[in-house]
Amino acid sequence: MTAPTATQHVAHAPSRCGHSRFGQTGCTRCMDVCPEGAISSIAQSIALNPSACRGCESCVAACPSGAMRLVEPDDDPSPALLALRGRLASGGATVLVVHGAGYGEDLLNAVETEAGGLPDGTVRVALPRLGAFDIEALLLALAWGAGAVRVVFGRGDRGLTAGLERTLEVADAVVAGLGLGGGRFGIIEEDDPWVLGERLRAVTIVPAPPSAGMDGDVPFRAWPRAALFQTVDRLRRHGTEATEAVALPPGAPFGAVEVDAARCTLCYGCARACPTGALLTSSGTPRLGFVERLCIQCGLCRATCPERAVSFVPRLALDASAAEPRVLKEDEVLACLRCGAPVGPRSMVEKMESMLAGHPNFSAPGATDALRRCERCRGEP
Question: Which of 13-22, 63-72, 121-130 reaches the highest mean pLDDT?
């Protein structure tokens, strides 16, 4: 197994990674969002370059499986947002402004003191690394009373927006799908405090969801994403859409796996490649199961399937049944022609027979009967 790699800031756990299995490539989200090119694929394994990594933590926020993690777990947005919770719930904040520490903080201070000030009800929070602001944090901020969230990037934060733009797109689709209105999340890139102030004051005032101030603490970055689903469940109670699933943009880290039963032979290659256990096998009746809330849409099942029977549906399932296994395909076990012992799934045996049907060596009647015999009986005349 590939050994873990790490930098001063982040580490990679191959056993949970959806990047590559059995020579097939799946998820590349961490590489796609890294602004420094510090993450690469070497021999189909994720490799981190410590000299290039500047610790923005965009990869951690983008990783849907938890394979990319912080070296220092306390260095994340959780404490800042937890401290913010009381102010959001009690103050009726309209806009939550998230900005970087250092230069970003100086920029917002200049807006407040020299450039016309921030809109009434605005709450600020400074994060050491903006790249770590993930979808869990966005949805929690909304659940705690923020009517809108704007992430402010200054010149010291350039290059970090690619991952966050994808995150905001997914978060906005979730909120809109719940009937809570779209356009609640956005990015503002600006170095001029006067222009920044004008843009913040022009943000559309959107009332906070009535779930603000909800009871109970929610843990951050829990696996399998328990915090996110708990937050969505609570927001759903106050939405106007009674839907079982929210459609998401392509590439979202949530969704369903669909299997073309006519093509699938139950070889279980997809289940063996799945890094999260979302695809399940059965030791008795040939059966392929699926737990949607565990799926990260990494693509390894689709890449591994020899029959091209796998497809994806990007969505966020809201029904509690998404946490339970459902059957994608079930088949009968063929019995050995001689002794009656189990041979394998009917669909697999019939697939092999169809592949050999046109071969001259198997044209005679009964030439493929060996495929319907168990391993012991195949060696007998």
Answer: 13-22
- In DSSP terms, which residues pair with 330 in a beta bridge? 287
Q: What is the pTM of this model?
A: 0.82
> DSSP code of 118?
P
188-207: average pLDDT: 87
Rounded Cα distance, 354 and 278, in Å: 31
Asked if 98 contacts 37 with a C-beta cutoff of 8 angstroms, the reply is no
DSSP track, 306-369: TT--EEEEEEEE-SGGGGS-EEEEE-PEEEPTTT--EEEEHHHHHHHHHHHTT-GGG-STTTTG
The string of pLDDT tens digits covering residues 219-228 is: 444 444 777 8
Alpha-carbon distance 85 to 216, whole Å?
11
Question: Which 3 state secondary structure label does DSSP give 262?
Answer: coil
φ/ψ bin of 366: left (φ > 0), alpha (ψ from -120 to 50), beta (otherwise): left
